[in-house]
Amino acid sequence: MDALVLAPAAVLGLVVGSFLNVVIHRVPRAESLVRPGSRCPHCGTAIRPRQNVPVLSWLALRGRCAACRAPISARYPLVELATALLFAAVTARIGVAPELPAYLYLTAIAVALTMIDLDVQRLPDAIVKPSYVIGALLLTPAVVAGADWTAALRCLAAMAVLLGFYFVLFVINPNGMGFGDVKLAGLLGLYLGWLGWSAVLIGTFAAFLLGGVAGVALLATGRAGRKTAIPFGPAMLAGALLALFAAGPIAAWYSGLLAPAV
């Protein structure tokens, strides 16, 4: 795809990533995203606009507060860079299409929810619940433009299927899965349903595969025990993004395995 399209998407990702750092820090604490403005968590000094340029300001300040020289975590520019790269990748995958804003929004909340779940092992309702409405509204122009009401019904059906599937898993083993995962599953079903049933299946399977691999790796390295609660939200979100990029090739490969040899 033309760099004239991908470059603005990456820049938008940097800006959104900067805002996501605020979301990641404040939403779990039930703090306002608007007031007060950004401040150094160590000395409380307000961060000036020129000190808040994504990535560049952190590099210019050498990772330290301009006032008290306390270290600023490298996670802030990494979140910004990750969001920029994902925005560019999603734009390359979707193209300039009516559904692009919907999947950029999904990408943004995926970054925020992943970091929050890793930090506090929660998927805040303040992000997940409104995203059902926002996701549906952002996908509506694509439905209208293509008159693809079948895809719209598939979105709703996939949302209901994944909600039901994860709810059953939660009822069977409430200690193995949080109810936040159930609510996130329905949202991911809405988005994966637009891509097709193969994306729903691959995204769901990938979530459990990635979650299992992460759990085994943590156990093997001694960073977790058998009773340690391991956040599943990041695996669900990673599985959904994997399906966005690779559901088509994976489904074609699997169909090839099932096809009889000629």
From TrEMBL:
Keyword Cytoplasm: no
EC nos: 2.1.1.-, 3.4.23.43
Any Pfam family: Peptidase_A24
Domain Prepilin type IV endopeptidase peptidase: 105-215
InterPro entries recorded: Peptidase_A24A_bac (IPR014032), Prepilin_IV_endopep_pep (IPR000045), Prepilin_pept_A24_N (IPR010627), Prepilin_peptidase/N-MTase (IPR050882)
UniProt domain Prepilin peptidase A24 N-terminal: residue ranges: 11-93
Family annotation (PANTHER family): PREPILIN LEADER PEPTIDASE_N-METHYLTRANSFERASE-RELATED, TYPE 4 PREPILIN-LIKE PROTEINS LEADER PEPTIDE-PROCESSING ENZYME
Protein name per UniProt: Prepilin leader peptidase/N-methyltransferase
Record organism: Planobispora rosea
